Structure formats: C-alpha cells, structure tokens
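User
Here is a favour to ask of a fellow structure person. I am asking you to supply a protein in sequence and structure-token form. Please set it down just below, with no commentary around it:

Assistant
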Amino acid sequence: MSRLPQKLEISSDAIDAVLPQTQCTRCGYPACRPYADAIARGEALINQCPPGGDDGIRQLSQLTGLPYAPLNPQNGVEGPRKQALIDEHRCIGCKLCLLACPVDAIVGGFKFMHTVIAEDCTGCELCIAPCPVDCIEMIMPAEPLSWSPHDANRARQQFMARAARLEKPSVGPASPPADQLTAILARAQQRGAERAK
C-alpha cells in the first residue's frame, strides 16, 4: 500500500484548478473539491482521477511536488470522454437521472421525457445506475471530445450552482412518491413486454 503524502503547503484551490471537474466520484470522494482538499491534507494520493488521466497526474505532481505514480486501477481506467444519451422512447420520466446528474446536464420533468444537454455533460456516468429502465448509455460522439480548462471551469460553476439550489427549501417533492414510482415502473415493464411481442 502506498504511503499517503504529508500535508501540503499548496492550497486546495490550486489543486482543484488542475482537476477536470467531471464530479464523477471515481476518486473515492463525492466531488472534485473534496478530493482536492484531501490531497492538500495529505489524506489522498494524486493518482486517483481517471478523467484527469496520466496528464492530470503529471500536472498534480508538478504542482504539489509529490512523486508521479500511474493511475490507480482501483479508481478506474483512463479513456476517451463520452457523453450520456437517453433513449427518449424508453424514458418513463421518473426523474432519478435528474437527481443524479451533478451538473444539471439533464432536463425533463416528472412523467415527461428527459434529455441530455450534450455540451454540459461531463461524462461522469452517474445517471446510468439509477435509471430503472436502462434507457441511458454512454456514447462516443462522432467527433472526439476535448475537455479544456474552460469546460472544467464551466462544469465547476454548474456543480456549485446546483449545490446552492439544492440547499434552498424545495417547493415540491425532490423525487416522485414511492407509489407513483411503482406505477411508473409497472407501466414501463408493460410497455417493454408489449414491444417484445
């Protein structure tokens, strides 16, 4: 097991500025900023961010003075950036993907079709697991996606705006009531069975 670094003199802000801001949680922390804080406190290694990849690890090493180490496979693998795509014909409008998206890149309403705002999607994949009808997939766009510091900054701002919005008292239910969700799932299963005939 690798030893954790000692507490750094470098600020969490500087470390956070190097991270890709996909908010994917693969580093083991709930978002990019908590991971940056953990690195600064000497509680996390610099090789835990798959979206940042090898280049990100090298930037963190140069910034912090910590030794380079290849990406920890326990956190995932580096790969090209993908985007979420919702099969709008199969979407049942349960809202669970909206609740999961850390940057509000999915729009729609309860019992209405949802869709992904492609330019806002960070490729975090957090919307996939909650979907009860498996209508979301990660796709490779025709043109390879770049991820610039501008994109990272925009994603950070959207993440912070969402967090601020969620802190305010809700005027409606945060998620559909259990009985309504059960009815939606039953209708979705029936639709699936009818399509299979």
User: Anything to note?
Assistant: Residues 149-167 form the longest helix (19 residues). The mean pLDDT is 87. Residues 83-142+158-168+175-196 form a domain with the Alpha-Beta Plaits fold (CATH 3.30.70.20). Strands lie at 83-86, 106-107, 115-116, 136-139.
